[in-house]
């Protein structure tokens, strides 16, 4: 199997360092993009890294250390356990979802005729075939989380449970704190944050490579508000990744929308 690899990573202008990480491990055929969730607490380690950075890089390190016979799924599990132990050692209150370090995951391991994939959150994996079609292999579980959270609060109030009234959640911090507590539960979203339930909700599978021309792994900073992921991949292929990112950045600036960390790995098969 012959292929070329291109990677682009750009930091959000609003952050001191990128909370995305990536792995290019050609020896084991392992590639991955990890998007740490920006923390809602002020913790930093002795090197000044926050929980988002630490979570994303913990997964990067585990996958960088894989060999050809290691299981991608087992490596995700080991990284998740290690992440939990690291949080405990740092004094993180892991009973609070909003304090856990967490990262989205989009990772693949190439074999002879197929690749295995593992996915959590809103990092995404897309495959482009030789006929020009783009296949989105993963589901963005973060999309719509605020609407689902509001629906859950309404249902809980109907059950007689004590839930603050909606004006409380009009405050962004309060809304985000509530959303983080929905990680890895039914109706919530998936993310690697040390919970055992991560493995229950992990999206994994395999896909043949024989008819593929491209494979894309991206963090959500590449998402365009007006384009589908399929169209995003086509434009990156036609215009070049950096040109696409430049156009996206101009659009976001024009509409005063936030610019996130942007990471993309493109594998092109020959």
UniProtKB/TrEMBL annotation:
Domain PPM-type phosphatase: start-end pairs: 2-269
Protein name per Swiss-Prot or TrEMBL: Protein phosphatase 2C domain-containing protein
The organism's taxonomy opens as: Bacteria, Bacillati, Bacillota, Bacilli, Bacillales
């Amino acid at each position: 199997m012959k292929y070329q690899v291109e990677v682009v990573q750009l930091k959000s202008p609003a952050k001191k360092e990128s909370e995305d990480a990536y792995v290019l491990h050609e020896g084991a055929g392992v590639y991955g993009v990890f998007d740490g969730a920006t923390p809602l607490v002020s913790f930093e380690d002795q090197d000044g890294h926050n929980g988002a950075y630490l979570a994303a890089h913990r997964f990067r390190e585990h996958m960088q250390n894989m060999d050809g016979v290691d299981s991608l799924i087992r490596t995700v599990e080991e990284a998740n356990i290690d992440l939990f132990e690291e949080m405990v050692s740092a004094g993180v209150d892991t009973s609070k979802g909003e304090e856990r370090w967490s990262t989205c995951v989009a990772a693949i391991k190439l074999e002879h005729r197929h690749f295995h994939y593992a996915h959590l959150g809103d990092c995404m994996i897309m495959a482009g075939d030789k006929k020009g079609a783009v296949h989105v292999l993963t589901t963005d579980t973060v999309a719509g989380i605020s609407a689902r959270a509001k629906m859950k609060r309404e249902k809980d109030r109907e059950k007689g449970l004590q839930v603050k009234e909606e004006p409380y959640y009009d405050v962004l911090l309060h809304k985000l704190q509530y959303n983080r507590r929905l990680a890895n539960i039914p109706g919530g979203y998936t993310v690697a944050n040390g919970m055992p339930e991560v493995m229950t909700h992990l999206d994994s599978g395999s896909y043949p490579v024989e008819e593929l021309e491209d494979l894309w792994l991206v963090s959500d900073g590449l998402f365009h508000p007006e384009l589908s992921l399929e169209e995003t991949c086509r434009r990156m292929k036609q215009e070049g990744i950096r040109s696409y990112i430049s156009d996206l950045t101009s659009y976001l600036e024009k509409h005063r929308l936030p610019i996130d960390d942007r990471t993309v790995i493109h594998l092109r098969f020959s």
